[in-house]
Design a protein that fits this description.
The chain is 36% helix and 20% strand. The N and C termini lie close together (12 Å). The protein is built from 17 helices and 19 strands. The structure holds flavin-adenine dinucleotide (FAD). The site of flavin-adenine dinucleotide has 36 residues, from helix 1, strand 14, helix 15 and helix 17.
């Protein structure tokens, strides 16, 4: 059986591996010159940066790809665990370490915030239970409907533990449990891990914090890029063929009775036939651009969903890569400099105005991979990945926004670190939502497909099997179960299950 994968992002690579292991002949068509999609790297002289993701969680999902092929994952990739989730900085100079070990974290929170150890433990147990009860259900199904999510088992759990409160938000749950506004802010931030607004995202998403704080934060040796490198090497060993610099323009279909079935893909005028097609391209763009000729025949419901996905995009990012000519012992690997008005900052990101620049007091994330991968910067120097959450691209003037953002970031960080900070940035590159959209063909440069600001968006994404085109499957951050490396890996598993159960085309 021949399967074509469109796109070599993490979801595309993992799908190709799983399908090759099922015995398929797999070809991956990638528009760019290399694999990895948003997982990419860049260099400024002797400084190396992971240009996209900086945090790795649930590494067992990566290992699983090797284990199912009877390979030892440690021959392809190795991970360091990172003891601190992040160091939190507040505008008045308060600094708090947030550990990835529950007992240490409980002690840290009780020391720095107005919360007792008992109450903190109760909250952490609550998010652990939320994760344990819902995650397997969420990750191991091809798609969800609200009725399947609120199944008998879930309703039992909801009643017994009070974990699902449909009208709550991440913020309202955190505020009720944690009370101290700064502690609430620290836990609200985890909603940004799927590009959402904690003041709107459903309360169930407080479980995201458990993934990092309960199950650990990791960094692959060699950086996040090592994940893409390992998957690509393994896929090649399994015989997957990669065709780079080749953008797919059309999915060719044929009608069998009243069903639309895949036949193949076209990159230019040549058609390549396939029994099944897996799209790692943004789902809305797959339907609107690659299936343009079939679009009129799709039901109104799909067109409505596409509009929803595109208008309710997740946040995007403005990232600076700074080559620093000195090191800062005040910083850890992951550092968050919080805004003093988080609610207004999220409104600024999600209630979009085209003329806006960045929020006047933005939350700034500074990741310094050279603190664990010393070869990422020259001795005594550091590579700073500095990120702001921003709106997705709708034609803003990103170059002028970046100029303004740099000045605001320097002003915000200087009192904490060094009043001459600006002078120590010896080289710079930056990435805008426009670049992300252009390089990975993601609608608006959204990092995680659509946002999860409603319970519907959070739980019900497009399924991994197309209900509209037989033989078409979807993986990656824009479809079920969602964005971020672990969920993209989970989507590939769902695709392989669906195809092996015989859902191919023709
Ligand atoms: P993508 O990375 O979206 O790649 C899709 C690929 O398909 C691209 O290579 C594109 O060129 C190709 N393609 C698309 N259309 C076509 C076509 N028509 N023909 C041929 N090729 C095509 N996640 C985390 O887990 N942790 C983090 O810390 C984190 N931080 C992030 C920070 C930034 C700045 C960014 C940008 C993302 C971050 N993410 C993070 C999100 C994570 O990177 C993504 O969710 C994930 O990598 C998306 O993978 P994907 O499978 O959806 O493919």
């Amino acid at each position: 059986m021949k399967t074509i994968v469109i796109g070599a992002g993490i979801g595309g690579l993992a799908s190709a591996i799983r399908l090759a292991l099922l015995g398929h002949e797999v070809e991956v068509y990638e528009a760019q010159a290399t694999y990895g999609g948003k997982v990419t790297e860049l260099s400024l002289g002797k400084y190396r940066f992971d240009a996209g993701p900086s945090l790795c969680t649930l590494p067992h999902l990566i290992d699983e790809l090797f284990l199912i092929g009877n390979k030892n994952p440690r021959e392809y990739i190795n991970f360091d665990s990172i003891p601190l989730s992040h160091r939190a900085f507040f505008n008045d100079g308060q600094t708090v370490d947030i550990s990835t070990d529950f007992e240490t974290l409980i002690a840290q929170c009780a020391e720095h915030f107005t919360i007792s150890q008992t109450r903190m433990r109760k909250y952490l147990n609550f998010i652990r239970r939320q994760y344990q009860l819902t995650a397997p259900h969420f990750l191991d199904s091809d798609s969800l409907t609200l009725s399947s999510f609120f199944s008998a088992k879930m309703l039992y759990a909801a009643l017994r533990y009070g974990i699902i409160k449909p009208l709550s938000t991440v913020h309202s749950v955190n505020a009720r449990y944690l009370q101290d506004p700064r502690l609430v802010q620290i836990f609200d931030r985890f909603a940004t891990y799927n590009g959402s607004n904690p003041y709107r995202a459903p309360g169930i998403l407080t479980l995201i914090a458990y993934v990092e704080l309960g199950l650990g934060a990791y960094m692959p040796k060699g950086g996040i890029i090592a994940i893409a490198n390992a998957l690509y090497t393994y896929a090649c060993e399994l015989g997957v063929r990669f065709i780079f610099n080749t953008k797919i323009h059309r999915i060719v279909t044929k009608k069998v009775s009243s069903t639309i079935c895949v036949q193949g893909v076209c990159s230019d005028d040549t058609m390549v036939c396939a029994d099944a097609i897996v799209s790692n391209m943004d789902v809305s763009l797959t339907y609107t651009l690659l299936l343009k000729e079939d679009f009129a025949r799709f039901p109104f419901r799909l067109k409505k969903d596409i509009r929803r996905w595109q208008t309710q995009a997740s946040s995007s990012a403005l990232v600076f890569y700074w080559a620093m000519n000195r090191s800062y012992k005040q910083l850890d690997v992951h550092n968050i400099f919080f805004s003093s008005d988080y609610k207004a900052e999220f409104s600024h990101v999600f209630d979009f105005h085209p003329t806006d620049s960045v929020f006047h007091d933005p939350t700034v994330y500074v990741h310094v991979s050279s603190k664990i991968n010393s070869e990422d910067a020259p001795k005594g120097c550091e590579n700073w990945f500095v990120m702001l959450n921003v709106a997705s691209d709708r034609g803003q003037d990103w170059d002028s926004i970046a100029q303004d953002a740099r000045a605001r970031i320097v002003t915000k960080l200087s009192p904490h670190l060094d009043l001459t900070l600006d002078k120590h940035i010896v080289d710079q590159a930056y990435l805008t939502p426009r670049d992300i959209a252009g390089r990975t063909l993601s609608a608006g440069g959204a990092l995680y497909g659509s946002n999860s600001n409603t319970i519907r968006n959070a739980l019900i994404r497009h399924p991994n099997t197309s209900p509209y085109v037989k033989g078409l499957f979807f993986c990656g951050g824009s479809v079920h179960p969602g964005g971020g490396i672990p969920l993209c890996l989970a989507s590939a598993k769902r695709v392989a299950h669906a195809i092996s159960r015989g859902y191919q085309g023709q």
